[in-house]
């Protein structure tokens, strides 16, 4: 009971102890509440590129090139015709999963993996390894709402899709 009262009083006068530790150690973290200006911005206004997508059936050479040149941790996977009528977001695949598919052991970098020319020309079906239900938001969502979603759910990746009037979402626009 004493600890509960102490913690309540401490939080009323000072920042959360965990937030203070994070700041002191210099770890990146999201603030608990969105800044007022974030309500005026949309996620479409703050996403950065370039966006790198993978097709659901992708050539090993393309995967290796992207992993060597991009530092992103997650990549949207798109189904295109003939698998669908129009390009559709299938899900998201993580860098670690792609490295494992390409023969990496734990902690190994893409630069350390050797491929033959024959292996580079092979194709990988990414469907079984893709998270088919990633969190997505429409590009017109307020940045404040997206920050709250990101923080409260503990997301690492949030896909931003374009608002297309009169039809369903066809492809991924960018990642926050």
From TrEMBL:
InterPro entries: CBS_dom_sf (IPR046342), Cl-channel/antiporter (IPR051280)
UniProt xrefs under CDD domains: CBS_pair_voltage-gated_CLC_euk_bac (cd04591)
GO cellular component assignments: plant-type vacuole membrane
Name of the protein in its database record: CBS domain-containing protein
Superkingdom assignment: Eukaryota
Keyword annotations from UniProtKB, A to Z: CBS domain, Repeat
GO MF terms held by the record: chloride transmembrane transporter activity
Keyword Repeat: yes
Naturally occurring in which organism (per UniProt): Crotalaria pallida
């Amino acid at each position: 009971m004493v600890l509960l009262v102490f913690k309540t009083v401490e939080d009323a006068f000072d920042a959360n102890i965990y937030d203070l530790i994070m700041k002191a150690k210099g770890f990146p973290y999201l603030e608990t509440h969105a800044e007022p200006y974030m309500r005026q911005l949309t996620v479409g206004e703050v996403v950065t590129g370039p966006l790198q997508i993978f097709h659901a059936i992708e050539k090993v050479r393309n995967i290796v090139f992207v992993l060597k040149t991009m530092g992103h941790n997650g990549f949207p996977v798109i189904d295109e015709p003939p698998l669908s009528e129009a390009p559709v977001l299938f899900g998201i695949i993580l860098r670690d999963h792609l490295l494992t598919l390409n023969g990496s052991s734990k902690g190994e970098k893409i630069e350390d993996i050797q491929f033959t020319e024959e292996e580079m020309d092979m194709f990988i079906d990414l469907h079984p390894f893709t998270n088919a239900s990633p969190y997505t938001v429409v590009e017109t969502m307020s940045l404040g709402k997206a920050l709250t979603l990101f923080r409260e759910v503990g997301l690492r990746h949030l896909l931003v899709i374009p608002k297309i009037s009169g039809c369903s979402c066809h492809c991924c626009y960018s990642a926050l």
